[in-house]
Design a protein that fits this description.
The structure holds three protein chains of three kinds.
Chain A (H helix, E strand, L loop, with lengths): L1 H9 L1 H9 L1 H18 L7 H26 L2 E4 L13 E4 L1 H24 L6 H20 L3 H19 L6 H32 L4 H4 L8 H19 L7 H4 L5 H10 L4 H8 L1 H5 L2 H24 L3 H21 L2 H31 L17 H15 L5 H13 L7 H30 L16 H23 L2 H5 L15 H24 L14 H7 L4 H47 L6 H23 L1
Antiparallel strand pairs in A: 1-2
Helix pairs in contact in A: 1-2, 1-4, 2-4, 3-4, 3-6, 4-5, 4-6, 5-6, 5-12, 5-17, 5-21, 6-7, 7-8, 8-10, 10-13, 10-15, 12-17, 13-16, 15-16, 15-20, 15-24, 16-17, 16-19, 16-20, 17-18, 17-19, 17-21, 18-20, 18-21, 19-20, 19-21, 20-23
Chain B lengths: L1 H22 L3 H26 L3 H31 L13
Helix pairs in contact in B: 1-2, 2-3
Chain C lengths: L7 H23 L3 H21 L3 H26 L14 H22 L15 H11 L2 H21 L11 H11 L22 E2 L5 E2 L5 H6 L10 H5 L12
Antiparallel strand pairs in C: 1-2
Classes of the chains: A mainly alpha, B mainly alpha, C mainly alpha.
């Protein structure tokens, strides 16, 4: 059947048909979302099935389009071709290697998570609404990656932000969940501001924001302009991908149901920032300052996430910190130039599989342990949930970067590339390389800690827990994703992913790392195994004692438990001045503006009152006034005659 | 010189009459002040008549007198009728137009 | 009369009558009793009449005395009597600062008017006024020729004023007039005297209003003297009567006639 598909795509008309049908990929989930929302309670019986079907149809059509891409190369489609009469609207899709890689990831992993959600949300009466939002998210994300201009990308950008808000606050009966949704939305908004500024500068310089107009001619702009655009785009990416300094919303976003965390906050939406940076490669090529900023942001975030992840006892929050850290790796790679960008995308794809797998496994554990998330209350679950144990083990080994699992092929390459110094900046190679390597060690420690605390050691459960394996609808997607975690990196390397992606990126030159590549690989492996062994000793071995209550700890651990005080800093830096500004503005409005109006009225009243005192009713006072007037008149006439 | 002297006298009498209107409270006394002012004007008219050497000023003074007489009649009638209703002749007691 | 210079006689007249006039006028400001004020103003009017004559208009001088002093001021006195002469003005000022305002404005007006007078230049026409001495005739010839219409209108004004006074003082009778039988019935019910009171005066010796009549027993009849005099205590006592009346009071009826 695959042959027939490729055959159909290979003919010119078939190719045209495939590319022309790419809009269906977006339209089907969007229409499904609309139907599910409008149908209301009547659709509760079959709504989830429609949602899964829409996502699966999207995947099938994207396969067809992908086949056409492999045969015929990239194409550009104008969605507004039906408008005629001398007016052209530039709203279209761009089908190239980079976008199709994302499309396949989003639709495949998305469909798996849709299937998982049928069972996970089986007891929730709003399951239909959940699927509607999931479909909406898929449609918006596909629009984002298929866009052919920054404007269409922005439409998708806002769409995923909306879907994320709706899904994080899905159980908005709990006010803290609704607050978390608002926090995510506001942090995203700050990033959106950056994207808008970048688009405005592009519009001013080029008169258009489409990729075809901006990216090929990016080099004509001055480095200052390019740096400004680059920094603005970096701000947008930080907001969407939860990078420092806009990272505070990701931990709280775990308030949403676990499939949401898996799909949006692990595999797809948070990777949109990386997509933006990679897509805007030509801009960053001409702006070394912006590129350095990307590198620094990526490096800081990967360490930030790793440090926070080491101290978190909430399973989902630990995984969120891990996501933050891994995307930091992707940012670091994207900032290394086109060569690093390939590995960033490769890591993005493998990360999509193993992180989604880890999150689905966490959901399975929560399902078994009656929605608890405190890892100190787990332990020895491996014996009771074999499939979950095995799939999460696959994801764990993949994220550690143990060969031949998926993470090894992508993350190791990133670390190796990090050691490549640009011309004349040897310190950069050492600095970023060492940071990446150290981050790998920390990743190994905290991910192993998570795995051992949950599945190994002694059982530290609360009373009347009966952990059991999850139903098939949940375990089958987990198994598929685990297969991806095991073989994904291997497959990508074998099919030569870098050659595949090259047409979509700028021409890059390969540099040599400052240290031997094999030495790097060996050192990384040693660090990783050391981290895993320390975690085993503390949490996983039979002799290890894991306290049920978090033990008192020193400053760094306390800071890590409090997310390195990110909320305090945000509150002090932005919330308090903002509130003071609003209070000041309100007071000014009340006292100055309203006060001026009231003061004017008071002035008139008082003046009127004073003048009214002349009307005392006595004829003699009026006579006095008249006499005064007479004197004045005569005096004036007299003065005129002097 | 002579005209000046008579005019000054007329001014003094006029001022006294005006001040009476301002200061006194009995409405009949106030009315007398008004009559005094009219007389001062008459004096001025006659002084100017002598200056110009014809009797037109005297004629003007004559008419002023006639009109003053008519005015006194009506004014006193008003005061009497006010007294009949309010039982007071104080000017200050008619202050209903106060604010 | 030469207009440029005042003759000596005229100067004497001016400087004597002028201050008297001002003095009389100032009583308006400073006198508490209203009737005294009216009399001082009468003095002022007469003084002004003198000045009018000195200014070469005897006609107006006489008219001033007749109209102003004789008619207008009398009217004032009538109304004052009607209102009540014991209604005296309290000199406490009710409006704050009105005294000061009055003084300042008065002085201000004087200054301004004096300034106007001093700043003016006067043209003197010598030898006008036609036949010397026939002031009334000159006025009349001007009045009935050039100003005839004004004269007629002024006549209308007088008529209107008289009508206005009548209308203003007209009182609508709100109650039925009391008839004589009703009055008598009322007096009877209250036990008052039914006849008019006895006339004041004593026999044929005195008939002044403040001398009381004597009844046959030789006692004074209080009701014969007007009550206002009684209130003021201005009634003649019996001691003021001549001695022979006291010793030999006349009998009630006629004396016996001797053959």
């Amino acid at each position: 059947m695959i042959n027939n598909v490729i055959l159909a795509a290979s003919t010119a008309e078939g190719g045209q048909a495939a590319a022309r049908s790419a809009w269906l990929v977006i339209a089907i989930p969007l229409i499904s979302a609309g139907l599910l929302l409008l149908a209301g309670r009547k659709a509760d019986k079959w709504g989830h099935l429609l949602g899964v079907a829409a996502s699966a149809a999207s995947f099938v059509i994207s396969l067809w389009v992908f086949a056409d891409l492999l045969k015929n190369g990239s194409s550009d489609i104008n969605l507004a071709w039906w408008i005629n009469g001398g007016f052209t609207l530039d709203f279209g899709l761009q089908i190239d290697q980079l976008s199709m890689a994302f499309v396949l990831l989003v639709t495949f992993v998305g469909t798996l998570i849709h299937i998982y959600s049928i069972a996970y949300m089986a007891h929730d009466r709003d399951r239909r609404r959940f699927f509607a939002y999931l479909n909406l998210f898929v449609a918006a994300m596909l629009l984002l990656v298929l866009a052919n201009s920054y404007l269409v990308l922005f439409v998708g950008w806002e769409g995923v932000g909306l879907a994320s808000y709706l899904l994080i606050g899905f159980w908005n009966q709990r006010s803290e969940y609704a607050v978390a949704a608002k926090k995510a939305f506001i942090a995203n908004r700050v990033g959106d501001f950056g994207l808008l500024v970048a688009m405005m500068i592009m519009l001013g310089e080029f008169g258009s924001v489409s990729f075809a107009a901006v990216l090929p001619d990016a080099a004509v702009l001055s480095p200052t302009t390019l740096t400004l655009i680059g920094l603005a785009l970096l701000l947008a990416a930080c907001g969407k991908s939860a990078q420092f300094p806009l990272q505070s919303w990701l931990g709280d976003a775990m308030a949403g149901p676990t499939p949401v965390s898996a799909l949006i906050h692990a595999a797809t939406m948070v990777t949109a920032g990386v997509y933006l940076v990679v897509r805007s490669g030509p801009i960053f090529e001409g702006a070394p300052g912006a590129r350095l900023a990307v590198l620094i942001v990526g490096a800081v975030t990967l360490l930030y996430g790793a440090i926070v992840g080491c101290a978190k006892d909430d399973m989902k929050k630990a995984l969120a910190a891990s996501t933050m850290s891994q995307i930091g790796y992707m940012m670091l790679a994207a900032g290394l130039g086109p060569v690093g960008a390939v590995f960033a995308i490769m890591h993005l794809l493998t990360h999509g599989f193993f992180k989604a797998g880890l999150f689905l496994g966490a959901g399975s554990v929560m399902h078994a342990m009656r929605d608890q998330v405190d890892m100190r209350r787990f332990g020895a679950l491996g014996k009771f949930m074999k499939i979950t144990w095995l799939t999460m083990m696959a994801g764990w080994l993949a994220i550690l970067g143990i060969p031949p699992f998926a993470g090894f092929f992508s993350k190791d390459k990133i670390i190796e590339q990090a050691f490549v110094a640009p011309a004349g900046q040897v310190w950069q190679g050492w600095a970023f390389g060492l940071v990446a390597m150290f981050g790998a060690g920390l990743t190994a420690f905290y991910m192993s800690r998570l795995f051992f605390m949950v599945f190994q050691g002694k059982a530290r459960w609360t009373d009347d827990q009966h952990p059991h394996e999850s139903p098939g609808l949940m375990t089958v997607p987990m198994v598929i994703l685990a297969l991806g975690s095991v073989f994904g990196g291997l497959i990508l390397t074998v099919v030569k992913f870098d050659d595949y992606l090259a047409p979509a990126l700028v021409e890059g030159h390969h540099g040599e790392p400052v240290v031997n590549a094999y030495a790097i690989m060996a050192a990384t492996l040693v660090l990783v195994l050391a981290g895993a062994w320390i975690a085993w000793a503390k949490f996983g071995s039979a002799k290890a004692v894991v306290p049920v209550l978090p033990p008192a700890a020193d400053g760094l651990v306390r800071a890590a438990r409090a997310d390195l005080y990110q909320d305090t800093v945000n509150h002090g830096l932005f919330v308090r001045p903002g509130q003071a500004l609003v209070a000041g503005a309100t007071k000014t409005d009340n006292s100055v503006v309203d006060g001026a109006v009231r003061g004017l009225a008071w002035l008139f009243l008082r003046t009127g009152g004073l003048i009214a005192r002349l009307q005392n009713g006595y004829a003699r006072s009026y006579a006095a006034t008249m006499l005064a007037g007479v004197i004045l008149l005569v005096a004036i006439v007299l003065a005129g005659r002097i | 010189m002579s005209v000046t002297a008579y005019l000054l006298l007329a001014s003094v009498i006029f001022v006294i009459g005006a001040t009476t209107v301002l200061v006194r409270r009995n409405s009949i006394v106030v009315f007398m002040g008004i009559e005094l002012m009219l007389n001062a004007a008459n004096l001025a008219f006659l002084a100017f008549a002598r200056m110009w050497g014809n009797v037109e000023g005297q004629l003007a003074a004559f008419f002023v007198m006639v009109v003053a007489a008519a005015e006194v009649v009506v004014g006193l009638a008003i005061i009497v009728s006010l007294f009949r209703t309010r039982r007071t002749v104080s000017v200050d007691d008619e202050n209903l137009l106060r604010h | 009369m030469n207009g440029l210079e005042m003759s000596t006689a005229e100067q004497v007249l001016f400087w004597i009558v002028g201050p008297i006039t001002v003095l009389g006028a100032s009583a308006l400001l400073f006198s508490k009793r209203a009737v005294l004020t009216a009399c001082s103003v009468m003095v002022t009017m007469v003084g002004l009449a003198f000045l009018y004559v000195g200014l070469g208009s005897p006609f107006l001088g006489v008219v001033q005395v007749v109209v102003y002093t004789g008619a207008i001021m009398m009217l004032f006195v009538f109304v004052l009597m009607l209102v009540g002469v014991d209604v005296s003005d309290s000199f406490v000022e009710t409006i704050r600062g009105q005294r000061w305002i009055g003084a300042i404005f008065g002085l201000g007006l004087l200054v301004v008017l004096a300034g106007a007078v001093y700043r003016s230049t006067f043209t003197f026409v010598i030898g006008g006024e036609g036949a010397a001495g026939d002031n009334a005739g000159a006025v009349a010839s001007l009045l009935f020729s050039d100003f005839a219409f004004t004269l007629e209108v002024t006549g209308c004004l007088l008529i209107v004023a008289a009508m206005g006074a009548v209308i203003l003082t007209h009182r609508v009778r709100l109650t039925k007039p009391v008839t004589q039988p009703q009055l008598m019935a009322g007096r009877t019910k209250r036990g008052l005297r039914l006849t008019p009171p006895p006339a004041p005066g004593n026999y044929a010796r005195h008939n002044a209003a403040d001398v009381p009549a004597i009844d046959p027993s030789g006692r004074v009849i209080e009701a014969s003297v007007p009550s206002s005099l009684r209130l003021r205590g201005q009634v003649h006592t019996l001691r003021g009567l001549s001695q022979d009346l006291l010793e030999d009071p006349p009998a009630c009826g006629p004396k016996e006639v001797k053959p």
